[in-house]
Amino acid sequence: MGRMVFRGRWFSIEAFNPRLPDGKRIYFERLVRRNGVMVVPFDGSKRLFMIRQFQSGIEKWMYQFPAGGIDDGESAISAARRELKEETGLSATSMKRVGRFYPDPGVIASTADIFVAKGLKMGRATPDEREVIELVRVEIKKFEEMVRAGKIVDGRSIAAFHLAMSAIK
Fold first, then answer.
1. Measured between alpha carbons, how far is residue 72 from residues 36, 76, 95, 154 in Å?
2. 3-class DSSP state for residue 94?
3. CA pair distance 62, 142, nearest whole angstrom
4. Sign of the C-alpha dihedral, residues 21, 25, 31, 36?
5. Is the pLDDT of residue 10 over 90?
6. How many whole angstroms separate alpha carbon 169 and alpha carbon 166?
7. Nearest-angstrom CA–CA distance, 118 and 108
8. How far apart are CA 93 and CA 88, in angstroms?
9. How many CB atoms are located within 10 Å of the residue 37 CB?
10. Alpha carbon separation from 56 to 34, 100, 118 (Å, rounded)
11. How far does CA 158 lie from the centroid of its chain?
12. Contact call for residues 80 and 112 (beta carbons, < 8 A)
């Protein structure tokens, strides 16, 4: 669609000339990456599993739900199951898609499919070498307290939590 300005391992930057609603063309750059998934694991007793992960891009620890990209030829639900297992060691007997959104449509051309995982079974996590992850359980009522206190600041996880609540209750 546009001219590739940069191609990296995880994303590319594309320059292009979109047409605005009034017909005017402008110069614009956007980040292009694979579409992704995020999984809200529910343990059946008013608790969610989250990960506490060191995010190299901001060089900080962050609470978030397991997430990752959808590989070429992979379905969103398969990616959700894979990311859940890799990052937490959990497998689920039930995986339900509860929504999709654009995490940052102003500059990023990708979507995130949100899933709720139930019927969880613990196994062994296999994160990749760049992932430093701790598994944590958070009570549903505590989640919003953690958001207000600035402990959960990942926008995707906050949106995923609200989408998931309709499927959990």
1. 11, 10, 20, 26
2. strand
3. 16
4. positive
5. no
6. 6
7. 30
8. 15
9. 30
10. 19, 25, 30
11. 10
12. no
- Amino acid residing at 48: L
Q: Which residues of 125-137 are buried (b: 16+ CB within 10 A; e: fewer)?
A: bebeeebebebee
Residues 6+ apart with CB under 8 A from 106: none
Name residues whose C-beta falls within 8 Å of residue 23's C-beta, 6 or more positions apart in sequence. none
CATH class, domain 34-168, is alpha beta
Q: What angle do CA 77, 83, 89 make, to 5 degrees?
A: 120
Q: What is the pLDDT of residues 109-168, one digit of tens each?
A: 899 999 999 999 999 999 888 889 999 999 999 999 999 999 999 999 999 999 999 888
Beta pairing partners, 62: 53
Spans of all domains in the chain: 1-32, 34-168
Number of H helices, E strands in the chain: 3, 11
